[in-house]
Design goal:
heterodimer, A: alpha+beta, five-stranded antiparallel beta sheet, elongated
């Protein structure tokens, strides 16, 4: 079963135009906050109505502006895991699951008990959501969604508000619980590492626009747009001009060989690709920021056309202090020439 | 002491509160879903009786319910029923005056309701009716209860509009408030004072109930926040 989305929606100044197809897979929808991820999910679930376009799930049309089709959320069979789980606070864990079971009488009781068992919620049946831990709430929310027999599942930044340890445990558990789900799953996040752990393929969302779906690792290793590079953790960007043989970033004073169409491009360089100690570039260390994994240096380039700053990275133990003169070069293998 | 005014006041307050309970909830629910301009306009119209002097409300009601006015004449012709100067005329006056109290309190409770709960319910396949009665109403329960109690208290104390539309006829349209006024006017100070005590006692009990409700609401909100 495939989930095909091709919709447009205007909300004030914001213009959403997304188009992608999720196969029977966990597809990451990756984007910075405010880029339209939640709006996209709400349109798919039927909570918001797109201005135009088409959404299909398998052979069912959920929305088609031209044919005048707009199924109610109740008819769409699309599960939606909200950020704070949206459990009904006035119902117990058992009642929360039971209300979503599409069966009657004894069969309903049997299915509810079965979901409680398979989501390890025995003994918590009569607890209210406020009495459950974050992990237990997540299990109730997922049990409730799966009890409603969805054909696709949408996960809206499920871990955005959690600290590292809890996030790691809940993420691992969520993957296990979703492992048997046969339909498409959309995993919305702003964290590329989280997407990388849980999804094979990714669709980058930038200011309301979707790009091509690519492999997750490919997106992190060789991003295709400046936004993808930013999401992949790249911090150095510069306008660049290509002439067919080379590409030059005037603000950095850097020219590297590059075969491609002439024109204006964006040069993106991850901090790890800036080599210190040798090379044609000269600069002064302005700031030093250290954590357990790296020492990040902000270098002010001298001799460049304009004043320019560049982040470089050294091992955490490296010796560095502001004011030091350094020589540096860029690893040409890891410089990305991106459109825009 | 003739207890008719107490009984009359209680039944008028109870019936008008029962009517306004549903009308206020329905208005609060549907007005919130209207386009912004209409919502703003309707909000002003629905809240107006709260700020208008009750005598103005009484005057306007007489303009439509009087035996020679549109609705009054129609009721007289079709049902042979007079709409003013009977005990139940006071229900119209009281209902109009307390409607904004119910409407605004319930609207406040609905606005505090987390809409993602309703969205979640819909994606789970639950009907809008189910979500309304089983999720939205229970979550807003305390606000709705507080609104109902406040409305009932205000209904018991209604004087201005009631005296204009139902007048004061002993054992027919007399309420506590109109009785107190009448007794004071006729210099029956001792009896007036007794009715004042009855009124103060009822109002104090009601306000105590409202305070208890509000404290419980604060406590549950606090527990929810702490657990979240």
């Amino acid at each position: 079963m495939k989930l095909c989305v091709d919709i447009e929606k205007r909300l004030g100044d914001f213009h959403l135009r997304v188009s992608f197809t999720a196969e029977e897979e966990t597809l990451a929808l990756l984007g910075a906050s405010g880029c339209g991820k939640s709006v996209t999910l709400r349109c798919i679930a039927g909570i918001l109505t797109p201005d135009q376009g088409r959404i299909t799930l398998g052979d069912r049309v959920l929305f088609d502006s031209e044919a005048g089709i707009d199924l109610r959320p109740q008819q769409r069979q699309v599960g939606y895991l909200f950020q704070q789980y949206a459990l009904f606070p006035n119902m117990t864990a058992s009642q929360n699951i039971r209300c979503a079971v599409p069966a009657k009488g004894a069969e309903r009781d049997r299915l509810t008990a079965e979901y409680l068992r398979s989501f390890r919620l025995e003994g918590l049946e009569h607890h209210y959501p406020a009495q459950l831990s974050g992990g237990q709430q997540q299990r109730v929310a997922l049990a409730r969604i799966l009890a409603s027999r969805p054909q696709a599942i949408l996960l809206d930044e499920p871990f955005s508000a959690l600290d590292g340890y809890l996030k790691w445990n809940l993420e691992t558990e969520l993957t296990d619980l979703l492992a048997g789900f046969p339909g498409p799953i959309l995993w919305v996040s702003h964290d590329p590492e989280e997407c990388c752990r849980n999804c094979r393929r990714v669709c980058v969302l930038e200011a309301g626009r979707t790009g091509r779906i690519t492999g997750m690792e490919e997106m992190l290793r060789r991003p295709e747009t400046a936004e993808a590079a930013r999401l992949a953790g790249c911090r150095n960007f510069a306008r660049a001009v290509a002439d067919g043989e080379t590409v030059t970033a005037p603000s950095w004073g850097v020219t590297i060989p590059w075969k491609g169409p002439a024109g204006t491009w964006t040069l993106a360089v991850p901090a790890e690709a800036v080599r210190l100690g040798e090379g044609p570039l000269r600069g002064t260390v302005e700031r030093v920021r250290r954590d357990t994994r790296r020492t990040a240096l902000l270098v002010r380039l001298s001799g460049a056309e304009r004043e320019a700053l560049l982040w470089a990275e050294l091992p955490p133990s490296a010796d560095a202090s502001p004011g030091t003169e350094v020589a540096l070069s860029l690893d040409p293998e890891r410089v990305w020439v991106l459109p825009g | 002491m003739d207890w008719y005014p107490l009984w009359n006041s209680l039944r008028i307050a109870a019936i008008s509160t029962a009517v306004i309970f549903f009308a206020g909830i329905a208005a609060a629910y549907y007005v919130a879903r209207l386009p912004r301009v209409i919502k703003g306009l309707l909000d002003v119209v629905l809240t107006l009786p709260l700020v208008l002097p009750p005598t103005v409300v009484g005057y306007l009601l007489l303009r439509v319910l009087g035996p020679k006015r549109i609705i009054g004449a129609w009721a007289l012709e079709v049902f042979g029923v007079k709409l003013v100067m009977t005990w139940w005329s006071a229900i119209f006056a009281t209902a109009v005056v307390i409607f904004p109290l119910m409407y605004r309190t319930v609207r406040g409770a609905f606005e505090a309701f987390d809409e993602t709960l309703a969205d979640a319910g819909r994606t789970l396949g639950l009907s809008n009716t189910y979500i309304f009665w089983r999720v939205r109403m229970p979550c807003c329960r305390q606000g709705i209860l507080a609104g109902t109690v406040l409305s009932f208290a205000r209904a018991l104390g209604e004087y201005g509009a009631t005296s204009m539309i139902a007048g004061y006829t002993p054992v027919r349209t007399a309420t506590i408030s109109t009785t107190v006024y009448q007794l004071w006017r006729t210099n029956d100070d001792a009896l007036a004072f007794r009715w004042v005590l009855v009124n103060v006692a009822i109002s104090a009990v009601i306000l105590l109930a409202v305070n208890l409700l509000e404290r419980r609401q604060r406590e549950t909100a606090h527990v929810r926040r702490r657990m979240a």
